[in-house]
Amino acid sequence: MGAGGVCSGVALALTPLFARRALTLETLELEPAALQPSEVRVEVLTCGIGFAQTLMVEGSYQIKMPVPFSPGGEAVAVVAEVGTAVASGRGLKPGDVVIVNGVPFQEEAVVDAGRVFGPLPPETDPLNAPPLSSYNTALLALRDRAELQPGESVLVLGAAGAVGITAVELSKRVLGASRVVAACSSEEKIALCKAMGADDAINYSDMSPTEFREALRTAFPNGVDVVYDPVGGELAEPCVRALANYGRYVVIGFASGGADAAGAIPQLPANLFLLKNAKLVGSGLTEWVNTRGKGQPLTDMINEVIQLSAEGRIRSRATPFAFDDLPEAFRALRERRVVGMAVLTTQHYANSAWGGEASKL
Ligand SMILES: NC(=O)c1ccc[n+]([C@@H]2O[C@H](COP(=O)([O-])OP(=O)(O)OC[C@H]3O[C@@H](n4cnc5c(N)ncnc54)[C@H](OP(=O)(O)O)[C@@H]3O)[C@@H](O)[C@H]2O)c1
Questions:
Q1: How far is the CA of 95 from the centre of ligand 1 (A)?
Q2: Could you list the residue range(s) of the whole structural domain that residue 202 is in?
C-alpha cells in the first residue's frame, strides 16, 4: 500500500509487468484495519482522478512510485466510525459526508482525521462535491500568483479539464473577472465551460498556432489580463503574444505533452514580457502546500472552497466511471475524452441515495 491508508474492501493496485512503463492493474481484497483514536473509518463514495495519476501509473510522473503501489487521490466518503479522540475533538460522526485527501482508490479506508475535511451539506451529491485540489490549484494561481483583480479578463486553456474548469468557474463567479474565455478541444467541452460561466470559447482542436493567435485577437481586441495554462506546448506563445500590458501568463502544467511533459514545456521569448511589462508566473500547488500554504493558509483555503460549494456558488461537474473501470478512466483522460473531472464511483455510491443519478449525467 504505497499511497497511504489501510482499508477493508476492494482496492486497485499496480504491479509491474515487464518494464517501468508497462504496469498492470490488479484488484485486491484487503482485511479491515483496527481504528486508532485519531483515525476515521470511511466508506468511499467517489474518487477523483487527475492527470497526475495517469502519469503516475505510466511511470512517467516526476515522483517515481516503487511498485506495486495503489494509486489514489481525493475521495468523497461517508464516515462509518470515528476514533475516540476524533469524536471528542472534531465533532465528526457516522453518517457525515466528507472529503478525504490522500487515499488510495479503495472502497473503504482508515485515515488520520487530519486528512478528513467537511462535513459537506447532507444534500450534496458526491459527484458535485468540490474537488479540493483542483479548486485550490485555481485559487492559488488566479488570486495569489496572478493577483487577478475584479474587472480583468481571463483566458483558460484546457478549460474543461479538472484544473481548467475550476479556473473558469472561480474567475467568473467568485473573483469578479469581467470576461472569461475558455479554450478547449470540442463542442461538448465548450458547452460545459459556458454552463460554468465562460463568456465565450475557442475550439482550438484543429488550429495552428497562427490561427489560434488570430482567434485570440478576435476574442481579446485589447489583450487579455491573465492567461491560465495547464496545457503548454505550441499554443503557449500565441497566448503570451495576446497579453495586455501588465498581463500575467500563469504556468500550471504541460498536459499537451501527454506522458512526455518535458516535450511540452514552451520556450518563450523573454522580449514579449519586456515589451508589455508582463509577467511570467509559475503556480504550483504542491510547493505552496509544503511551504507558505502549510497549516492555516491551506486549511483556510479548503474551508473557503467548501463554503463556496455549500452556498451553491461553485458546482463541480464530473464524468463518472464505475470503480472497476479505472483503466478506461485513465484511457479517457489520456485521449482527452473526459469533460470536467474524471470520477470513480464505488458500490457504496451505487447503493446510496444518489446512486441512480450517475447514469443521468
Ligand atoms: N500547477 C499545479 O498546481 C497543478 C495542479 C494540478 C494539476 N496540474 C497540471 O495541470 C495539467 C492538467 O491537469 P488536470 O488534472 O486538469 O488534467 P485533465 O483533467 O486531464 O485536463 C487536461 C486538459 O488538457 C488538455 N490536453 C491537451 N492536450 C492533451 C493531451 N495530449 N493529453 C491530455 N490532455 C490534453 C485537455 O483539454 P482539451 O482536449 O480541451 O485540449 C484536457 O482536458 C497537468 O499537466 C497537471 O500535471 C498542475
A1: 34
A2: 134-286
Q: CA nearest 226: which of 266, 175, 262, 188?
A: 175
10 Å Cβ neighbour count for 290?
A: 11
9 Cα to the center of ligand 1, angstroms: 31
Give residue-wise pLDDT tens across range 315-346. 989 999 999 899 899 999 999 999 999 999 99
pLDDT at 90: 79
What cell does 37 get?
483514536
Return the best residue to mutate from 163, 254, 256 for the ligand 1 pocket (most ligand atoms within 8 A of CB): 163
- On whether the pTM is more than 0.70, the answer is yes
- One domain for residues 138 and 278: yes
d(CA 6, CA 204): 43
| Single-letter amino acid code for the residue at 284 | G
119 with 221, same domain: the answer is no
Q: Residue 84 is placed in which grid cell?
A: 475516540
Q: How many distinct structural domains can be found in the chain?
A: 2
pLDDT in tens, 114-160: 999 999 998 899 999 999 999 999 999 999 999 999 999 999 999 99
